[in-house]
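I have been asked to look over a protein record a colleague put together. The record follows directly below this note.
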Amino acid sequence: MLLKRLQRALAMQIRNYSAPVDGSIPPAKRKYVPSSGTYPKGFQVSGTYVGVKASNTRFPDLALITSATPSSGAAVFTKNKFQAAPVTISRETLQKRSGEGLHAIVINSGCANAVTGKGGLEDAVSMGSAVDACFDPPPSPSSTLVMSTGVIGQRLPIAKILARIPTAYSTLSDTHNSWLATARAICTTDTFPKLLSTTFSLPSSPSTTYSLAGMTKGAGMIHPNMATLLGIMCTDAPIRAPILQPLLTHAVDRSFNAISIDGDMSTNDTVALLANGAAGGSPITSLSSPDAQKMQEVLTTFTQSLAQLVVRDGEGATKFVHVRVCNAASFPDAKAIASAIAQSNLVKTALYGKDANWGRILCAVGYTDVGAIVPQDVASIVPERTNVSFVPADGSAALKLLVNGEPQAVNEERAKVILEAEDLEIRVDLGTGNEEASYWTCDFSHEYVTINADYRT
């Protein structure tokens, strides 16, 4: 009897975390990890073990990305008022260099170096300086961006990190395995490394093949602008710094700033882009040029794919949900409504429970603050024109839930089948214009609470 009680007590303490403690990738997530890639010329990367977090005894947690050729650089940072030390230092580095002459990005996982005062700023500077010292001659001012992710309010074990930076530099490589190890090094509660690469051409150099590679991390505390999320992208296309920043900002607004897992905005969010021009061709110097327009298209599509991997790895998530708001009076209206639906815990818990409770979706539409930039005689939301549907991922017909403000007789059995699938689109047609916006989110499960209740330990 005593043995049975002990067995029951132990069983109650077993928790099925999304991220296996042995570092293995869950079978359902393996399809998102690439087995090969095409990486930009001139960039080398490495993932190195430091042991930043005491519980990490063997996995890489220091990432280094370098370019032998000085790069143009741009970044978009968190809007959280308590900005982490690496955010402050990286922003200053970009400003001092006017986005030009960058050589590296160094990232640690396991500790956010956020809300750590003057000492935290000194640690971030030290990380950048240690990387700069690896180059001959060392650049001045610093040409290294610094990022950190992990627990807030704790100082970095800076001596351990600085001691391993020379190793990180000496093991740089341009192989696929090195890129994958680097993507793994920036993970925290992620269940898989998030890495993508693609190739493209530009109108002015149709015979030149350019490459764009990117990695990102994030599984919780995900919400614009942005959320505990790091993103690093590198391209060998020639893009001048003044053009790179608006290209990145536009892309991030439609990707990393259009995802939400739990509505919490982190202190550390950074998405950075380096362009070293190593593949040759005419530099992009004007936003109105055909090359810039093509680059914007490539970059936006790429960042959307990269950001969607974060949602697919949402802490405890069982569903990937695309919220599409179409025929809106303005793009801001469409994005605000999509955001409200994606953030709604009532919508997210209903999706987890496979409950076709479309009233919660309509409620989120109705309480959204819209109409700020549309003409006064144009209504942003007209209940009699509003339509809500579930669109299955298998290409079958949409399940109409609300048509022109009138509720439909919902086939609950079909709704259940649609909601059993991993992927789902919620489509809201406002019927008040021709603008459209998308948001990507996931459901809200019991396991999300379990993971975050134990995060520090």
Observations:
- DSSP finds twelve helices and 15 strands in the chain.
